[in-house]
Amino acid sequence: MGCENISMKEEFEKWVATGKINRQHVDALNQLTESGYCFHRSWGFGKITNVDTVFGRFSIDFQTKAGHTMDMVFAAESLKPISADHIYARKLSDIKGLRQMAALNHLDLIKLVLQSFGDQATVDQIQQALVPEVIQDDWKKWWEAAKRELKKNGHFQVPLKKSEPVIYQVKEVSLQERLLEELRTVKGLKARHTVATEIFKNLTDLSDKNVAAKEVISALNTEIATHQRTQPAVALEAIFVRDEIRAATELPITEGAVTSNTIWLQEIAKIGPLIEQIPSAKHRRALQSFKDATPDRWHDVIIASLNIVSAKLAGEMANILIAGGKLELLKELLSRLISQHQASSELLLWLARERSDTYADILGPEVFRAMLTAMERDQFNEKRSNKLRDFILDDPTLLVELIGSADLEIIKDLTRALQLSPCFDDMDKRSLLARIVKSYPAVQTMISGEQTKQETNYIVSWESLERRKNEYAELVQKSIPANSKEIAIARSYGDLRENHEYKAAKEMQKILMRRKSELESQLVRARGTDFANVKTETVGIGTIVKITDLESQSSEQYTILGAWDSDPAQGVISYLTPVAQALLNHKVGEEIEIPVESIKKHYRIESIAAYKTA
Length: 614
Known about the structure:
55% helix; five-stranded mixed beta sheet
């Protein structure tokens, strides 16, 4: 700035003598002129380019305000002096040197950043200081490499949580000392498991890995014993890392220590929810551990859990079943759940993603029908079915592949089911219907409403009929009038040829009116009933049927109700489902075939009872 610091201080003293500044401002102004760099909480980092002692002003080049002038008093009170060694100052004075440091010496650069912020800074603060001026390439890749070096260097403390700061310390502390001290300090099994995992990752860099391993194993054993019932998922994770450390150091098994077998046997009835609490990267390990612990029962327990877990875990469960020679058991379960419309949206999402030749005899039109049922059930139970719905929409070949093996009448029936489904909005329905029409043009007339064939009536429960009446009322009383107002407003904008708002509103009008027509057609065809006074000589709508699988001798019970009724958990199915259609009009004692995808299974009807009296 063209002046020695002593002369600048003398100038500031003159301003004090004239009463233009207070004495308390002298030291602050002197520090600013001495450093030449400053920081403002709103404008960020700046370089002081000139001090005008005649008019009492500073000239500063801020990051966002170059050539900004500031009154001396305001500068003294609002600016924080920054040393020439600060990372912000170095970015202005030696950006080339910093970039070279970033390429060749990670630790020196991070040390510079930490010292700039009082010897500690979070990962986010380090990234903000270096990107994009210094680190111009892939930050994530650079930081991972730097972090590995930091952990090995005794001057840096790297926290396990990203929100906590990286710390520079003059006194060097070994990696083993730091990790073991953290193990002793943290509270609770989850925190100790996190530290133990870090120790396992760094075993080869420890000064005496056996000493460290013994302390970790002892600490984990104590915590696992007290958490095995209250936090079984965390206890399992701790057992896994404990066993990995013991195996890596070849230490003997601790007598009396809780094992994974102990956890599995006490939690065997709820392994699905238990494994869901474990990170997905460890699901395969957990399932293998469960299989080892229960060699005679593992497949039955996994089969019983498949329909209540996430799509990702369902995939891992399927893999271990196949690897264990239980593919046919898996396919039998899938076929039954699909044919009875009991498959969960998560299980169907996994199957849709998988779609391999292994399941070619299962994948068919009934899968899509089961998907519609699952998504409608999720909506009714206020569960989120968005993942399955979004996958159906995003995968352009799924729907066509599923209906590819069906005859035209089945495809028409599926098209009607899609048109009636509340799971997709009208624009999405149009997209899906267009995929069907592209492969099967014969259904075009049905979709466009030009078919002349007399449609059959639906037998429905009063409750399901009321739901559709409410949807129709909402459409007629709210949605269509609101759309009419939008059309009127858009028309007022003028020039309808280029009026995008008007075109969009008119397009929505078509969709709303088409849906209105669809609902009117459904409601006209619907015949409500309370299922009272049904005859029980043969299976009919409104009856409860018990049947026996002639091969396995297992019993099943179904309540056959209206076209829009379904509650798989209670065995309630629509009379339109394949299972119900196979049962209708048959008597007690008769043996029947029920199609389960490509397989026909034989059953005997044991009893028929009236649903209403039951």
